[in-house]
Amino acid sequence: MKISIHQPAGFNEMGGRSNNEDSIYPIPGTATSADRLFLVCDGVGGEHKGEEASFLACKHISDFFLRSGEEDISKSFVQKAVIAAREAFIETEKHDPDTAGMATTLTLLYFDNYGAVLAHLGDSRIYHIRNGKIIFQTSDHKWVNELVQSGVITEEQAALHPQRNVITKVITASRADEADYMRISDIEAGDFFFLCSDGVLEQLYDDLLEYHLRDNPDNHPEPIEILEAVKNECAHQTNDNFSAYLIKIASVGEQKAGEEKVNEKVVNAVMPESVVSRQSIEKPRGVLFGLIAFAVIFCSGLIFHFVKSEKQAEKALFESKTNINDPDSVQVEVPVRATGGPEVED
């Protein structure tokens, strides 16, 4: 699967905070349509250097992807990238006690040969939108969500719960949380992927997101125009930092080379070497049998002709003795070379 994207758009805003604990990758203003990896991280903890945590996560996860050279991203690969970020946290805390306890959420989007890889930790989200409708969104790693899923409280109660901001999964030095991983292969031209921190969600509810990404036959704005409208929804309205990336799919094509490799593997799997060898022998053997048959028929034709000619010559000799003045009484046949025989297929 060959996926091409429009120029991505992202923002990373201070919002109502005195410092910005969000980080995104690529850095705002540097993303291009050639980029495959996108990250949005929201530092957790306030006084525990959340801005350092989100920055380190973006830096070390992106470095891990770039160093590896991997094209097809597995769940274990993503977890190794998260571990690389966690190890950077551990090293940083050793040298800077003020960073002890720092943590961050993570949203990750990567396009490979099989579609889109999504991974997340915490309450930052990833959306997949098609034709102005959300067809997938990640589920927040929050304590109240677990209570709702277990039937202890309702969604309405969760919105007012005193522990509604407690996050159950993050990147941090003190424990190794595993990121939720998903692969999406159902991707079409015109689809959107939207990554955002929870500060965006203070003002941008699902219906409003769908409104901004709806079908509009009279106008086809670029992602940067759409995201500017989203940013305006949040500006001066949210108490938190707010950050996002919007990626629009330009086209989805077949990965021909990959298909050929798969087909080759299938052929080798169902056609053992012994079968292939036998076929390679049977083909020239069939040709040899055809040539032998042709030679036999050709020789038989010659023998028949010579016998017939000999008899005609004897008859002519006899007739020439009686009809000596008739030159046409003796007819000489020119031997005809045998042609035909069975066709031999290569």
Task: Describe the protein in words.
The chain has two domains: 2-262, PPM-type phosphatase domain (Phosphatase 2c, domain 1); 285-329, no CATH class. By secondary structure, the protein is α+β, with helices and mostly antiparallel strands. The two termini are 38 Å apart. Helix 1 (50-68) packs across helix 2. It contains nine helices and 13 strands. It has helices spanning 50-68, 75-95, 143-149, 155-160, 198-201, 206-212, 223-234, 256-270, 273-322; strands at residues 2-5, 9-13, 22-25, 37-44, 103-104, 106-112, 115-121, 125-130, 133-137, 171-172, 180-184, 192-196, 242-253.
**Ends distance:** 38 Å
Q: What structural class results from the helix and strand content? A: alpha+beta
Fourth-level CATH superfamily of the largest domain: PPM-type phosphatase domain
Enumerate how many helices there are, as a single number.
9
Q: How much beta, percentage-wise?
A: 15-25%
Percentage of residues in helical conformation = 40-55%
Poorly predicted spans: 258-289, 302-346
